[in-house]
Specification:
single chain; about 250 residues; mainly alpha; 15 helices; about 65% helix; elongated; disordered C terminus; binds zinc ion
Amino acid sequence: MKSFDIWSSIARARKQATFTQRKWISGDTPSGVEMHRRQHHDSPRCPICTTEDESPVHILTCSDSRSVDLRATLLLELHEWLIAELTCPWIREFLFYGLQSWFDDLEGHEPGLNRHETFAPSAQAQLSLCWHATLFGFFHDSLVQLQHRFYKSENSRKTGILWARKVTLKLWNIVYQIRIHRNSILHETEAIQQVSGLAKIQQAITTEHARGPGRLHRVYNSYFSTPLQSLLTSTVNNQKQWFHVI
Ligand SMILES: [Zn+2]
């Protein structure tokens, strides 16, 4: 087997990924922190847990139970898939428990697996790339070569390079699913209203309504004749209109 270049599995897998996957993987889809920086969102907070700022890494490691459950499901599915692909059991368990531990605690320790002395150098080499890189399909040469030798020992005609390409796509799909989940929560619940300023607008309306029209031109009086409750339950657009007046 020729010396394996970690970039080639990325390049090959990239050709097979869908346009949307490529867009997300290349980081073109902004996180809450980025949207806030661009002033599209009033808050950089994560729309799922609403307690932490949403950096690109937070999207992958959010500690909300819905995010944790989704990742557990995706990892179990990955585990099954690795078995079906005749993945070397050392590599399979290394990827499964390593990713699980990284998702759960970015700063945590590596899971204490007893690594066979044949596998330890490959594991070490892969760990030097870090789990974030692994999740994006960066595989160290020695890990891919180990998988290749495993196929040979099982009399399989599959290759380590093809395995790496498939796993890369599989891992990208995990990132993709996590993104879809995050976007569905952002767009389909009231979270978008929270982060895009509805709460702020409602608060401003309440304050201004309580102050009354005193300091404004009488042309605006009609805005204050509407009961506060109706204003607060009116559509977001109406509220925004009202907000611009005050
Ligand atoms: Zn979160």
